[in-house]
Amino acid sequence: MERAVITGLGVISCLGLDIDSYWAGLMRAHQRPSEVPDPHANMSNRLLYQVTGFTSPEVGTGAGRLGRTSSFAVAAAQQAVRDAGLSPTALADAGVSIGTGVGDTSLYEDVPAGGAFPTGADAFPFKVASALAGELNLSGPMTSVSTACSASAYSVSLAADMIRNGEADVVITGGADGYTRVGVACFNRMGALDPDRCRPFDAERRGTVFGEGAAVMVLESESHARARGRTNWYATVEGAGWSCDGFHPTAPEGRGTQIVRAMRGALDEAGLRPEDVGCVVPHGTGTPLNDTVESRSMSAVFGPAVESLPVYSLKALLGHTGGAAGAFGLLTAALILDRGVIPPNVAIEKPDPDCVLRLHTDEPVPPASSHALVNAYAFGGNNTSVVIGRTG
Amino acid sequence: MTAVVITGTGLVCPIAASVPELLAGSSEAGPPERNWFDPVPYLGKRGWKYFSPATRYVLAAAGLALADAELDPAAQRDESMGVVVGTNFAAAPVVGRFDDVVIAEGADMLSPAEAANFSVNIPASQISMKYAMRAFNLTLTDPVVAGLESLLTLSAAMRRGRARLGIAGATEERPPTPQPTAALNEGACCFTLELAFDAAARGARVRATLAGGFSRFLPPGADPAVLAGPLTALLEDAVGPLPYAGPGADDLVARQVDGFVTSKAGVELVRCEYPGADGRYATASPLLQLAGLVAEHGQGLVVATSPQGHVAALRVRDGGDGT
Questions:
Q1: pTM of the prediction?
Q2: Which of A332, B17, B38, B142 has the fewest CB atoms found within 10 Å of its own CB?
Q3: Is A9 helix (H, G, I), strand (E, B) or coil?
């Protein structure tokens, strides 16, 4: 069976608009949200980890009218393709497997500010895959996953399946989500936002804070990469575990039965044992119950060793990027394995004694092995864990 | 390859609440009537008040599919059952209504019981909650073709061992639009999928066997010959005449598919048309075509296209050779 290797990365984030500035932001380990400049955001908490300085890429007519999410995705994908060194010819049969929670809802939310009402092909809110395929001239296998906040981790898992099944040699995969007024409003109403910042695993955490951006990867069959002269890549997608709580629309099932199953499923598919994992990028949203359940579930999977296993809490820097969150976790894990460095976590003021995780601060540490596990969970209890490794 | 079979079909849309009604349906003139759907016969008197219309539709269709398959989820292992639902507009009307409230009155005036409905994956999630289907739960959103993708994705996951059975379907609510339109409608259609040997073991009636399919993209101006490879593979063992449902002759891609299949693959297509062939039910449209083909012929080819350039196809063959 073909191995699925990550040969290109692209990112649009609040930390920066390319991989180098993103990594520099991770190493700084300091970022705060700001109030979103939306005059129609009538809500008490308007905090957002915003993408700033971004100019929507110029696109041909094939991509249609891009909302904020699709604009992020196209820009990140263009970077990833350049990074992979793929020519347009090599891309012709490439596929797309992209995750997004809200798609181009911004086109509708822009109407009160004078934007044209989306009509025709633009009226479809979820056309991120169409925008990518149209702009990059891709005609391979397509799918667009919108399983809320685990969408893009699922999209990467499905992209790896496309490679392994021989459906495609190259797949553009990852996730994107832009600011949504309604999304932030609903989290306000549910009392699920932190008034200060996103602070996962902090005893004082009071909810999440949204972020926005896109994390896109070029996933390629190893044989295709080698045939064009590539002998090195960021990482290999080694396994994925899927599960569903089937419990509540928004709350996780308290025992973590299904998120444990997802982690173990990913390890099984990768042919690894828990002690083989050298770094975990958790879902860690800052929501009180979610972080506690995830921490306990990690203890169930890794045993006492969880207290020495390096954990990188990404949302403390990026906020919760919704449907893009899993892809941000995977892209970051790929950089960690490639560079052999886990950036320092954002300082936690008051560690939660119920969350017994090793969240190193101040200085970077090396991953304990060449395999990383990334968790992504969502509304509806829709869980997935993905293992990537830097081997061969 | 492990065979995956369709054992049940369920649908609700303004002109049909069963396959026979779908087959009899012909007139869809004019915009749909509001309040065409009464949840009580499907969902009972309580428990659905805060569900969005798209959630109510898909729960009804899923229940009908399970009943048609004579499949009791409570008798199955929860981690063996997966759910995949396609949609384009399940959340858009909710988001539009919420946005009006936020702008006019503020977020505090939103209903906390309904707030989660802004997320487009809630309809699919409610299926897992209702029937304890815990293998996995996915929502797919490629324009129009995501309904067909739901069957392709669930069956592929079953072959990888991620589930043994499940619900694949699509649901839509009429999208927000500033002008009256008869072009887009609403409803849901679901199928139960099972591994062929499991279906045989429990004596299930097999409606059809999934023979393969694909979801691709035709960039503007691209040569439709790029579809030749996947179409050839899909029709490799097909013998005509093959019942076929898809976009009308005014759809350029569909015409090209017709031409390729007939001339290159050498398979005679027999066009069948069921309500929604024009795509008015978005992701549910191709599934209504599939429901019609399965019921009338037990085999055939469904093709779906989107205005953006998506092209998907799914072929089913007679259920008898599924095992």
A1: 0.97
A2: B38
A3: strand
